[in-house]
Amino acid sequence: MGTAEPHVASSAATQLTDGFQLVIDALKLNGIDILFALPGIPITDLTRRAQAEGLRVLSFRHEQNAGYAASIAGFLTQKPGICLTVSAPGFLNGMNALAHATTNCFPMILISGSSEREIVDLQQGDYEELDQLAIAKPLAKAAYRVLHAEDIGIGIARAIRAACSGRPGGVYLDLPAKLFAQAIDAEAGKRTLIKVVDPAPKQIPAPEAVKRALDLLRSAKKPLIILGKGAAYAQADAEIKNLIEKTGIPYLPMSMAKGLLPDTHEQCASAARSFVLPAADVVMLIGARLNWLLSHGKGKTWGGKSAKDWGGQRFIQIDISPQEADSNVRIDAPVVGDIGSCVSAMLASLGGWQKPPADWLNAISEKKKANVAKMAETLAKNPTPMNFHSALAVVRDLIKANPDAILVNEGANALDFTRSIVDMYKPRKRIDVGTWGIMGVGMGYCVAAAVVTKQPVIAVEGDSAFGFSGMEVETLCRYNLPVCIVVMNNNGVYKGTDQDPTGRDPAPTVFVKGARYDKIIEAFGGVGVNATTPAELRKAMEEALRSKKPTLINAVIDETAGTESGRITSLNPSAAKKK
Q1: pTM score, two decimals?
Q2: How many whole angstroms separate alpha carbon 232 and alpha carbon 14?
Q3: Among residues 144, 164, 192, which one ends one of the domains?
Q4: CA dihedral defined by 126, 132, 133, 139, rounded to 10 degrees?
Q5: Domain range enclosing 477
Q6: Is residue 261 classed as helix, strand or coil in its secondary structure?
Q7: Per-residue confidence band for 2, with pLDDT thresholds at 50, 70 and 90
Q8: Does residue 22 share a domain with residue 115?
Q9: CA 240 distance to own-chain centroid
Q10: Longest CA pairwise span in the chain (Å)
Q11: Residue 77's Cα: distance from chain center in Å?
Q12: What is the DSSP annotation of 207-238?
């Protein structure tokens, strides 16, 4: 497709604009200044012209990674991250990330070019022909198609509002190729553009809901607060901190809520997780869902005798979606509204508040002390070769010394061990695999986090997880981003010791022995380091943070380290049977 000029004079008095320009102008009008993309027909010229108009266009090697970048940009900024893809296969690659954004409540818009409707509908075999809108609808929060240039402004406005309002999510916007070249009067086109006013309006909770929740919380002998990534997304950090500290209630942060208050805070119960969940009598969920990550609120995790048994806890749930209540267990006190408004309303109604009974707090404190001491003993060991604990002890120290750094984390054991070992000190500094627990988010997250936060990024990757998006190290080098990747290399998925009983091939879970992942980034001008000891890992990470150069450290881990399926063995029938 040839480049269409943004302004074509049809007469001395008339200026024309086109679809390309209207898309760009609509995005700029709404404060969108970064696009994550993989150019190709029919969006190549859109990326060129957007860059020329001052938008930052970050080009990736695979659409899925561009999409993951857009999704986490939405989480970090509360503005929809924009991903541009080509049609059909490019769109399908981007759909992985869009579905991920919807599941995790990240505001994101996937904009894809598409084949013309009249050809698609008759299935005449166009280039990359696919009914993209129909495929997107079940996996996105909303999906729209724009057929006429004068509707571009409305289409983008609706996509922004859908992505951000209520429970955020992924939105698909279908732009057929012919739309871009459509020309209309420039002044008329300008009038069609919409600046979205208040895309995520506050939702104030009902006073009776707030009172019901506080009455239940007051009655508790063993109260507990659970913070989810929704609480982190809300950016109501001061209000949440005040509520926790004024009530004196212990809290448990879910993975991406770590750092809302420092993990070292005296009320943090992370080190006593397996004690507080079954023992608590009233649990208040703030932006957290009782999904599989919390064992659905049932089973032995909560003190039940079987997977279907409730533990007897009573639940308060603060969520913007009323449909979330009662999804797994009875919610005794739902508080529906945006988290900032709900927490503020609770603070305003606290009145004279008595902190939880001392025996509950003391019991948690004792469990924490015992578990922290046990972990410290494990971290102090220095085995050869390194294991996850000795390597992550280094990462733990580096994050403590650099609390503004963003920690990206994915893998099985690399994820589980990092989550429990590495403390976080500030909000939205830990980003990981989220609700689906998927692999492949790492490098896209790294690009977006470095660009939108302007802070250094440390990525702790399992060697298997890194393989999903490893080619994006070229993207990191191309944009010279301050990202330090640590690949925990234990030669395979979970561990590198499995064997093919026939002796014919490597086992399905085993990779090339002694692989040097650090060499990959060197091919693109980045810094590669092979680290076999904690001292070598520490030196390399410190230098990466100092230099701000794209760096990949191949951290050689004992191939026997790790367990099959990490900490979700119960979901893997074969691993559970072995256990």
Answers
A1: 0.95
A2: 50
A3: 192
A4: 170
A5: 381-578
A6: coil
A7: very low
A8: yes
A9: 21
A10: 84
A11: 12
A12: HHHHHHHHHHHHT-SSEEEEE-HHHHHHT-HH
